[in-house]
Amino acid sequence: MKTDARQGGWLIVLTFLAAMILTIVPFPDFLQHFRPEWAALVLAYWCMALPHRVGVGTGWITGLLLDVMTGSLLGQHALSMTVIAFLVINLHQRIRLFPLWQQAIVIWMLLNLYQLLLLWFDGITGQPSKGLSFWLPPITGMILWPGIFILLRRLRRKHKVK
Amino acid sequence: MTLDHRQQHLQTVRAGLSLLVAPIEYLVDLPVNIGRWLDESLSSRQQLLEENTRLHAQNLLMQARSLKNADLESENQRLRELLGSSVKVADRVLIAEIYKIDLDPYKHIIRLNKTARHGVYLDQPLLDSHGIMGQVIEVLPAYTTARLITDPGHSIPIQVSRNGLRTIATGSGKINQIDLPYLPNNADIQEGDLLVTSGLGGVYPPGYPVALVTKIERAPELEFARIGAEPTALLNRSREVLLVWSGDKIKLMQTGQSSRPAPPQEQEESP
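Predict the joint structure of the above. Result:
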């Protein structure tokens, strides 16, 4: 069977674009602190499903764009995303076999690491501390993971992205 | 890379990337824009008429007030000349629109649609019709980022307008509060006092209202009183902000605008 290696690249770009839009779309005030790290979730999925196509480089570029978008230090999100991509690619064969809820826990830990790196950068650059609600996004991310996973898998199979 | 950014070497990279991101932000802002446009085009004749009369009345009132203001201003200038101090020049302002997007929930920063093309410069103050809102922290080709006075990383030199007591107000991280952490327990300050910019530091022009004192706790065991104030500007409600050029920065605005044929919304305002 012959498949084009570049097939469906647009779908990957599109999902990242959607993630970025969701990152800055206005939420009601009480949901502000629950906003999950959409881009990191999408990156984790693609790294797990297609480690040969999406990887550290994609993570880095998405992270840079996130940095510019949210006005954070240039490289802050980029490094965190790179670390996520690296870890997921390293573990992808193991995570793939987990049942969904177990995957969600792994994702939660990864997202915590992501937040920790961001917090660490903020600490170094002298930004004021953010309180405990800073650790809510990973939890929302964990709760949303099964949904995101199923949605993206369906999209990927439908468009035969390999 | 992070350290590099501290020295602002990566400003060009950031500027380039911002152009890539700009369409996304525009897209996110679009529904709000469409909503506004629909609202404008679908409002009935009756509503428009009502609004027109209301604005007319308001305009009349404002004009009457500004007549008096002109008189006061000239008197003020005369007195200043008598005192031998420098004469205050009227500031110039330009209206900028805020993008309706959420950035970091822990930082109070906003995105504006005016850029260096319009003469916007770093550290430029911005305000709305009720008071000081914040200052510009980043000027990029596609947009400008500004920090509000309630951002925990922001401080503004102020004075109590009742007695001229000077101090510094720091953002609290809550959108409706700024703190005055450096006033001793015996400082002459009351609830309801108006805080205005003192003009020290050279970023904010003097005399603009900043906040009203809402809470004073004088704890004898602490060195400083705990004082909170509520910003007079509608920080999370305004859609439009005013960028201010004052003093010698007015030239900047003129050079910035000479490249554009017609200045869109330009007004003169007296401080």
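The mean pLDDT of chain B is 79.
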